[in-house]
Structure to design on (1600 residues):
């Protein structure tokens, strides 16, 4: 197959050239005397991406799943009651992990295509006068359905109930792409991974922790130390404080991380968020022009990092994903679990721009036609490009 | 600017990943004992790309312009009469070089947008009973106007006139992308460069030479040795015959060349040509859907490697190129010389596929709209993608 | 600082060029339809490196420490009795992890510079008639002291005692560099990581598991599921069986792993081991020529992957490591824990050859002199190179 | 073969990692609106490496041989008398080129192992009252014999004779490595290439030209335009003045050039020269310790970029080069032409440091022994490393 393969899954995302260059390196000694100078800058700047102003961010050689586990095992004990909502494959997996790690999970199941039910959470918290609930979990962006939840709303519910539970956020497919404000929103443990908004290959799990959660983790009366070691806060803190790691870190990815954080800070986080919002809106216009629906039920749930498109009755979305790959060298995301066969997903996060999205939409359009979905050729990509050009910042504004 | 820059100039072209990987190398000694094993395979296989069955191909550290100069200075003398046609910036530059190198150039100027006038050539050759014409030059693909000429037709004209002149072909933007048959068509000197169909960075000039031309070059009574050294055949032959080079070769590009020739041979040259034809036709359908015209006057001149699109009166094509770059990170080709301001060019050669071309057309469409050309959003890219999917080889056929 | 930095720590090790090229890649979708073809080959071939003939190898996005944890948490329960020896920083850390994960560790402390006390182990196993000991842990190569232990001897002790305990081996700095035979030696869980003999950047933890251990892990009556998720066998088995992973794998490193396994298999494991033995012996000759001692007490403990050199009284080995780095851009390993300040380490594993080791020894020699150790200039490197050339396989033998 | 290949030929030289990273790039359009910003900085900074304060430097996609040809064909006519000395393969090749390009070459042959005979040159210039000599050629560093000539001395001779001849310098293996001062020494045309002191892959030829020579080139009454086109100054000037090139430049190498010039300027040219002098002296001490002689006859001729070592009677230096490559993966330089079989060469220029040179000397030492030269193991490398550590700048001085 000739030409570049096109990657539009909602992670791993495309790696920017400067990041790729930074990772094209000979091996280095992560105990070299100069290494702490490098790591300290990294620890400082990754906090900026999470907008974590007082705590610290752990960088694990792991996937985001590992960071989930670290969040739980360092701050909660088996038997602890936690409040979670389930509305997609990734919120489901987090519930599953919490249960397997022995937590007493109060799961609120809501329709896939919606997100965290803030009112229900508010109600449960208000009623929990004894503060049995130790933690509230929010999947900020459900990658499986393209749904974004209201983290600030959950914080408001906690505050309204004067509830001391810790707030956990899965930001794997949101941090660095859509608005996230750890300190302002009072998020205690925010999880992310290298392969989404951070535009790196997979292999790093990030866990950004508030001072409050760090204090909880230190409280040996409160949590069980017998179930962690690799993901332990105390080991990581002790080593990080000297600029090193408790075991060999993924040094190549750390060099890439430096380059990717530089890109994010240089573009400016707010500009990054605006870019994602604009690219996402173009995709949504294409979906509308195709006369298809998103899995997300209402505009308030629309995700600016991934759109899950519902295929018509009689069409298997798995066939769409396979056809896009085989006929057009384009990787789209499939439907997972409950929505398997029913949706396909277009990732629009990370190192993307208008022309790349037009390519993705063109591939999707050819594929839909190949698979028997009657869409008008050019309708979707035309709607998107028309939006992109109209919504472009005028050059004069850029210069200002 | 975020996201990948899009490259759709008619050279340099996109570099395939395996080629890029092959060039990501530590430096090596081009006099190592094992080097000839590498170079001999390369010399053998590059001939296959030119379909040169009996001669040899020189690989110069130079651009294609250097290979032009080598072709002239090794086989012709100042004062020699040569027949050339001029119908675009690159055929113009070759004429200019021939004149500056002292040849007596019989230039046939034809309208830009047409190509080599085979009938006129046939006439001149037929009338040249004394064989004063030593060489006939053909620009197979005029990159400035998107016009492909009929090399086989010129050969037929030579044969019909029983004329012994050597046949020179500028194949810079054609070899490895559209049909070229050195031995079958009796081409004596075929010039190309690394940065077009060979999908490499610029830096190598190729000159594929027939046995007849090699004999002419050896004939010291016939050509002046005082005007060349760097581009000399004899030095190159002597060194190449031992597997080495007369001066330091561009070793990194040679490793890339190995990888790019492997890709071409693996896909199969005829499949490569068919891919180019199909991608080009999609672009032409887009141009038609925009209600614009190609610079190429008739279908017989249409190039499958580059399309030059004429902009409407009152529009400056230079603005289109600049706008595509600034607003959409997309490099298109501008108009050169006589057609400056009047055409913009879309390269569709090398490591390209359907989705990449849809991206290019989307960028062009947004840009046309930004520059005041009234095209219907989605019309061009829609026409192209509809063609691409209809003309796709069915998967079943591929498997067979 | 000019020139290449020299890396001679006992991991991370130098990355071969073909591995580096393989990792110079655009991002890819690890759920692509073609991905299982790639992963299945990898799963099959990594078993060959461990010489695991009937079980399977898990590849975690983690360091080797993560694979340690996976080994323990999938096959043992808090409270289970295990037999371990401690004689260096890495065997110490494994003991520490086992204790923190709640195991009842029977630690045999032996002198640093020696290794697993096979006789003591044999004695304990023979006396454990009730089979309270569930597992025996062996650090095959103690990276901190340059000591290799006798895994086959421990297996023999288990067999002699007809003891059913599982055998765990830390092969982080041995597998792929020195002889290791999982199935033949009856090793149940062998841990390794990407950044040593596998010659990759850090970021992958390997856990090669025997069928017996897989059965134990499946036995839900036997082990506690509440303390793992990320490192769970069952999740990994279920996903791997389809060619995928339970969470996003480190795709870039997996491509590198493919290339590194290819290198190991192409050289032949036995040749790889012989190369390591020969390079190590040269280093030991240099140490002898310097009139210094190894930390390893006797030849039977000598490691072929790393040599820990004891510095004379009054010399701080940390100063040696820092001086080598600052003055000669050379990374050597320092002394850890009990031997901090007392030894420096030269790694001689992975992608190394004679000339590289001579460079390392030259750097060490300059550094020793700079730090006040009286060694004769050229003595160590001279002894090594003399050995290297004498012990070289004659070219004729190679050709045969 | 395992481990890194060692490259110690006097070019191509080792490519620094940052240069390699810079060349790991997708293709780019060399006509992009932003390109001139990049090229202008490059044109300005490359002058600094030549210490050309008023003229300009041309960057050709060619080897240094091409820059030789450009120097001659733009400023001299066939028949012009030039003064040259011959004392090695590269000075020989330049003479050969001058003759083949039709110059009337007054060749002074001196013993190989010596350099430009300044006194003889002074004498010829003084006697040339009619100024028939149009140009004086100096090979600053004869790469074949490891001899550096006195450029400033030749300038003094020209000045003493008040002779207007242009001064041409072959600085291929000297510029960027040893002292060169174009403007101060009144050098008119200085040739270099990318693959030596510039630490790049081969593929760029540099020609740094004084204002005086630029004026000569413009004087159409003085030089014949019919023998050049590719290497023409006027085309290059016209295009470079707009930030572009007359034909496709080697864009990947230009990005590498930016990185390599940055490295040179960051280290500081004088520091670079001092580093080369020091590394070279270590190699010479090794040669002395081996009881071997350099090809260079006297210290005043010693080159700081390459040492040609004379092998004892009865030893074939070609065998040494082959043995080093086959047995130790080390590329050394062989003897060329008159000194074929008699010398082998160690390159010590570009991206090199002490440890790398100790590796090279170790490889040479093993090879000499393998080939029957009786040297004491460790003697050469020991002498070198002793010198390196003694001559090291104290860290405190560096900090100052």
């Amino acid at each position: 197959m000739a030409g570049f393969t096109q990657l539009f899954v909602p992670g791993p995302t495309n790696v920017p050239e400067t990041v790729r260059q930074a990772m094209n390196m000979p091996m280095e000694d992560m105990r070299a005397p100069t290494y702490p100078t490098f790591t300290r800058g990294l620890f400082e700047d990754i906090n900026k991406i999470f907008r974590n102003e007082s705590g610290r961010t752990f960088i694990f050689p792991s996937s985001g799943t590992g960071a989930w586990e670290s969040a739980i095992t360092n701050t909660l004990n088996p038997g602890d009651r936690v409040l979670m909502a389930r509305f997609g494959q990734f919120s489901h997996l987090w519930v599953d992990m919490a249960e397997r790690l022995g937590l007493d999970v109060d799961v609120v199941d809501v329709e896939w295509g919606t997100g965290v039910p803030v009112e229900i959470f508010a109600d449960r918290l208000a009623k929990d006068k004894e503060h049995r609930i130790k933690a509230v979990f929010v999947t900020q962006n459900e990658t499986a359905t393209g749904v974004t939840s209201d983290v600030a709303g959950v914080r408001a519910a906690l505050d309204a109930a004067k509830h001391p539970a810790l707030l956990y956020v899965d930001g794997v497919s949101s941090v660095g792409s859509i608005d996230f404000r750890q300190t302002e929103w009072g998020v205690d443990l925010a999880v992310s991974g290298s392969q989404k908004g951070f535009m790196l290959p997979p292999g790093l799990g990030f866990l950004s922790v508030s001072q409050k959660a760090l204090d909880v983790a230190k409280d040996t009366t409160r949590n069980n130390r017998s179930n962690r070691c690799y993901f332990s806060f105390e080991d990581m803190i002790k080593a990080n404080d000297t600029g090193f790691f408790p075991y060999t870190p993924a040094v190549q990815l750390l060099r890439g991380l430096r380059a990717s954080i530089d890109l994010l800070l240089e573009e400016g986080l707010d500009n990054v968020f605006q870019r994602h919002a604009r690219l996402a809106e173009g995709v949504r216009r294409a979906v509308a022009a195709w006369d298809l629906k998103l899995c997300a039920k209402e505009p308030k749930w629309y995700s600016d990092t991934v759109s899950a498109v519902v295929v018509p009755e009689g069409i298997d979305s798995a066939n769409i994903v396979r056809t896009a790959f085989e006929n057009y060298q384009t990787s789209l995301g499939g439907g997972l679990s409950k929505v398997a066969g029913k949706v396909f997903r277009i990732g629009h996060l990370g190192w993307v721009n208008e022309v790349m999205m037009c390519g993705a939409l063109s591939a999707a359009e050819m594929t839909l036609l190949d698979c028997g979905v009657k869409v008008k050729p050019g309708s979707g990509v035309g709607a998107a490009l028309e939006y992109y050009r109209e919504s472009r910042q005028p050059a004069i504004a850029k210069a200002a």
